[in-house]
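Fold this sequence, please.
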Amino acid sequence: MLETFTNLPELLAAVSAAKKTADLPIVAQMTFAEDGLTLSAEEPGQVVQALERAGVDVIGVNCGVGPQVALEVLEAMRHETRLPLSGQPNAGLPARVEGRFFYFATPEYFATYARQAADLGVAYIGGCCGTTPAHIAAMRAALQPVAGAPRIRQAPASTAIAIDLNPAEQLPPTPFAQRLGGGGFVVSVEIDPPRGLNPSKCIAGAQLIKDAGADAIDIGDSPMARVRMSALSLAIMIRQQVGIDTLIHFTSRDKNLMALQAELIGAHALGIRNIIALTGDPPRIGDYPSATGVWDVDSIGLIKILKRLNEGYDWLGTSIGKPANFTIACAVNPSAEDLDHEIDRFRQKIEAGADVAMSQPLYDLETLERFFEKTGPLPIPFLLGVLPLQSSRHAEFMHNEVPGIVVPQPLRDRMREAGENGIAEGLAQSRELLSETRQLVQGVYLMPSFGRYEVVAELVRWLREQQGAPTLPSPASGGGNP
């Protein structure tokens, strides 16, 4: 007798083990929540179909929230199978009274449940948590033999999408992941969500960048701890209206362990499957210094969560139905002051399951070479972060006021000498760096300053002219996203 299973793959594994161990009849029971689904979101009919294929002798429900949900589940099961059914619900939901848990469903109420279950044709009727000898006696008294066939109401038409329980099957990779896997030079451009309700500038910028030849759009998650539209919302709009693959920055700053997983599962269901796992800027540096950061996990822990979802399980090991297929990106700063510590964390991110690395903005070849000398050959692709400078003032700001960014003195001198031609000089410096590093990296991660998408679009066009390689199809034209 196998009972109180909350996800179907585990119950199927137990059935397989039982059949290999003995030739006894097998009773297989699942636990269902208030919505009539298992904790891994299977419907009663899906449970029945899987257990019938597994060769059990009795199918049923036990534990859970009480008799009423059990009756609804058993009725749905009866429409799907002729096998004997079993029902052993809890005596309702427990309540804590003076430090102890009590169940308040009475023996008389259970007697009514037993009669209704028998009317459905349930063959094996009992109780689980909270039931007492009095409950069992009341059910036995109610279950006197009656004439007539079981009374089964017509089942309502199901609107659920069938769950594929094949754990080996995965969704196809995203266009971004296809480009990485195919050895192409990947071009991604960052867009920060708007601080208000109007995303039109972001949408127009994404269209400009797509037309220039970029592979994907990166979307920030309230960078610098300032309130902005959610990255997930903007990603969905860009995919729908522009038709280009997206990567969302996802921080562990604002959500606890449950909310992190809930939003990631929702993003995957909506087709957003490229995730840059970040710890996030602390709230004290942003608009709401009194806000509380959560940080149940840091970026390394977030990568581990994504990896578990890709294996088909949440953080506690509960099945999510089938494996997710996230492409997991991590951040790394080759200009970090404590480079040994940065590389140690980078290696932990790779071990945790990162698929691709994306660097902070760099401005010189020497810094990148020093970084690669310390890391040795990397097992994952590396995308170089490039943020074109706009002016001498911008160069000084980046060097002196942005943590982790180093702009070498010769480049700052060139920006000062450029005067009003700062944008052109910044582009020239970016082209030089990309030409020098082209054979060292697998792509580039471009960051426009002050929302000047036309500047990075020019750089994207130049990159594509240099490579002479086409980009992959967009998601809207069959690129692989569901």
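The first helix runs from residue 8 to 21. The radius of gyration is 29 Å.
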